[in-house]
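To the team - 3-hydroxy-3-methylglutaryl-coenzyme A complex, inputs and output below.
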Amino acid sequence: MLDIGIDKIGFYAPHLYLDMTKLAASRNVDPDKFTIGIGQEKMAVTPVTQDSVTLAANAAWEILDDADKETIDFVIFGTETGVDSSKSAAVYVHELLGLNPYARAIEVKQACYGATAGIQMAKGHIAMNPDSKVLVLGSDIARYGLNTPGEATQGAGAVALLISAEPNIMALEDQSVYFTADIMDFWRPVYSDKAFADGKLSNEQYIAFFSEIWSQYKAKSGLGLKDFEAITFHLPYTKMGKKALKPVLGETTEEVQERLKTNYQTSTEYNRSVGNIYTGSLYLSLLSLIEQANAFPAGSRIGMYSYGSGAVGEFFTGLLQNGYKEHLHIKQHDDLFASRKEVTVPEYETIFEETLPTDGSEVAFDVQDDPATICLAGVADHKRRYVNKKK
Ligand code: HMG
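Output:
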């Protein structure tokens, strides 16, 4: 049987962030509510020179070599904050990265579930075409609005996953359980650049979906918590996965519970400093786990719970590959976090309100202030102008 899975993982977040304790002070909220109750320390703030296309392109740029660029024949872009209702964000990224023109490039949408759908599609494509590689992107900017209950769970960033046969990081297993139900827990009408959420309902449904899917998964696979080194979660905020995991922990021994709790904590480190990145959040959590924990033995099983409001959920699993640590970009990610610049609350509010023209007028940005390799340089003739400073 051909192993198919994650060969490389890249990550990018904007270079600006807001300290959650300062946001709390300005909103007259106890800072512990944000740092403990919600579990967020920093929130990525997106300058106008970045959008979901550039975030994804920057995440992929750091991991792809020339051979990958030649071999990738499918780009799947999971996003719910795309930049065009017709043209897929994947086509822009395809050009910005200089990929082989004999490729498919599409966008996939189902709230935070998009990238997971992309991974499953990629797996099927590689099963049919074992020599090909698929670039799956999960990129979003989470916006709820200033002074809203969702504000503390905003964020922005992208994860790029190279899916191939005989992968270096993780082989995906075939068993998975997925579930759909029509629920208005979170949505964003086409006329709004901010999401609407029924916060309480969304929390309840996230947990209810996990409970349902996990029961089905156990029945189908015959596996239980003891068979997992870690379970990673879609993390709209870092307390959320904990709320879903807690009710099922009683199914196993104290020792396994401790292992899962410790590894859950490690899997939240990056997300705690970035916020919700919607489609990429689960994979940012996976990345946090495998980059920040000591090396797990080859063959360790990691569970992944994907949840996209509306809603679709899926639980699937992967086995870590021998020597996977050598294929991670830990130093780059440490540098990315260390080089970010803090903004004040008033600066964040100004940046939040600075949106692109919607009336066709032209705008040009100075991309030198943005350290990213790939930036949005402006809009003219209703077209976004992107620049790759290294191409
Ligand atoms: P809220 O009403 O501001 O907060 O909304 P709360 O009153 O529910 O408090 C939050 C937690 O802080 C509670 O803990 C409080 O007890 C605690 P919990 O009971 O839940 O364990 N707390 C404190 N802790 C310590 N010290 C204190 C203190 N005060 C309170 N002083 C909410 C929070 C997350 C609902 C809001 O931010 C929101 O609506 N966010 C957006 C929706 C969301 O993220 N939903 C998550 C599930 S849906 C999902 O994951 C999909 C999504 O990613 C979208 C997609 O799929 O595309 C969102």
